[in-house]
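Page 42, continued from yesterday. The earlier attempt failed because a stray header line got pasted into the input along with the sequence. Redoing it now with the clean sequence only.
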Amino acid sequence: MRYLLFFLLAVNVLFGGAAATDMSPYGVDPRHYMKIRILDQRSLSYPNIDGNHFFGISDLAYDPKKKRLYLVSDQRGKLFAFQARFGKKIEEFKPIYAVKLVGRGGKAFRRWRRDSEGMTLDRKGRLLISFEGRPKIGRFDTKGRMRQEFRLPPKLLNAKNYRSRNKSLESVALHPKYGLLTASEWPLKRDSAKDQTIYSLSGKEWHFKAEPDTSSAVVAMEVMDDGNILVLERAYSGFRNPVVITLKKVWLKGCRKRGKRKRVCRSEVLAKFSSADGWHIDNFEGLARVGKNRYVMVSDDNDNFFQRTLLVYFEVVE
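This time it went through. Structure tokens are written below.
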């Protein structure tokens, strides 16, 4: 059985594509799991696209007008564009092109400035991408050139405020009322390890509790149809411990102050996947809305032969 698995993995690496897969454990119906319905699951493997190695996907964004899904890699700062249509299942998924992210002058980013982590689209179809290392958020055209760098609130601009250089601006979303939103992977140094925050660039903040799982971190977020936020959390604390992925809804209104503490927003777990329960999950890091109550999430394979780039298409059914 082990040799068969290695053979199938090797075939997928050599020939590539979006192969059907199933990450659910035996006896679990993914079409009716907690408060989501999994509609389709694919394992993505492409030797290269336009000469660019396809790996390390950290986030994605969907343009419903062009039927185009953009995926960004956090290793070497690359952007991949796919033609994609979503219906009852993933009806179309094929690569179009790949480019490297570059600065406003067309020059490549230095190594410690190209750690692209979060991504979304603005109303004109331009890409908004957040970075770790030196924290920043930029507006990019769909060919990967930065056109504008946004001004961050002072507490987010200073890299010393983060728990590490690799735990900064992991996610970004665009809200119709509050504008550009972002969150750090782990809370800032001055905050409790379980007190997470969503920041607007105008200075407004929303606070919510991270999951109790060890090292649970915010890795992606998306604006839901009702204006609240869908948050993707990942917990990983070592090879011997389970990987836990959580989809959580955070309400932006009605946040209540608890004593002298910050106003804490209501949150609810919509789905939780743990490798300890038999879920064949991977390092999920990206999230994008693709239709009414419908989303995709993607995993980062870390350029590791034994990991996969999983694309999961699901519907929220609260």
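Notes: The helical segments are 2-15, 154-157.
Reminder to self: strip header lines before submitting.
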